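hey m, so remember when u said the tokens were messed up on ur end? i reran from scratch. heres the input so u can diff it against urs
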Amino acid sequence: MDKIKVCSVFGTRPEAIKMAPVVLELQRRTQEFEHVLVVTGQHRTMLDQMLTLFELKPDHDLDIMQARQTLTHVTTNTLIRIEDVYKHEKPDIVLVHGDTSTSFVSGLAAYYQQIPVAHVEAGLRTGDKYNPFPEEMNRKLIDGLADLLFAPTRAAADSLIAENADANAIYITGNTVIDALLAVAGRPEPPDLLPDLPPDARIILVEAHRRENLGQPMEQICHALLDLAQRPDVHIVFPVHLNPAVRDTVMPMLQGHERISLLEPCDYLPFVFLMKKATLILTDSGGIQEEGPSLKSPVLVLRKATERPEAIEARTALLVGPDRHAIVSNATRLLDDPSAYAEMTGAMNPYGDGRAAMRIADALLHFFGRQASRPVDYSPGS
């Protein structure tokens, strides 16, 4: 029997982290799958860091990144360049992840050639097409054209069903980011992680880069960090995204403060250990809302809406938005109230058990009729 030829496509650091476990699982199952890895290079430097960390070698690199690229550049360059890859490789199915423009366009290009599409991390919704932008609509559009929907949670699956998706096409897998996180967290801690930090400092780790937070919202976040940095027991660690629109705000406002360390973007390995060390995490990232709870680090979400309501409902994360007062007041409460802090760190992470990639591979076998039994859906605590 012929192997199932799977083409995985991604282009950013978050996609690489979350797709690495899937790629490695498919590559491991050599008797069942032939795997082709395509990267677009939407985030060049940060993507390459992840490829090195997980020892992934692309079969095709579209290398689309341009200085100060727009969404139009990402969309058109990917659409044009990936067409020839699909025609050459002739995959049985294309795997895309999450909500990036790389994922949407790669799925659209596959649809144009009538190649089935599988969407890893399907069904996440905020209900606001501009928050996050353009990710909310990217994800909905991918789900609309996908043949297989790998929902990380029951809530994500319910969102798909509410939009009239075929229930038979939905598999609840858990989130692959937990697979990646657990694998990396088990490695030795990198040396000289924060060599100049006072040993008793309470670390507030910050990660902020979303398009909807550029400009005035990022200024509000920075003002909140300056307020928090007045506390002598706190040290803020902020790996600053390479996007010039982020750096043009963050660097002038925060550079030079004795209790704020502005770092270049970290490789994933040191960032995982920063999360482990953090007393508190402030982020507008999606993945960190899932990772932080696994490492018992409370998360304040610097967004107006989140497509990951499970963390909010489980009280492992709080939605505070890019609002100076809300950030400072909630961070202060967690720093000063041990019972509030214990409530967040003691809650169960709803996002995964480290076996999502295995479930995805089994679901692909089931979809192509190579496995009779449908994989059992992931459920927290099961």
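this time it looks ok to me. The mean pLDDT is 94. if urs says something different then somethings off w ur setup not the seq
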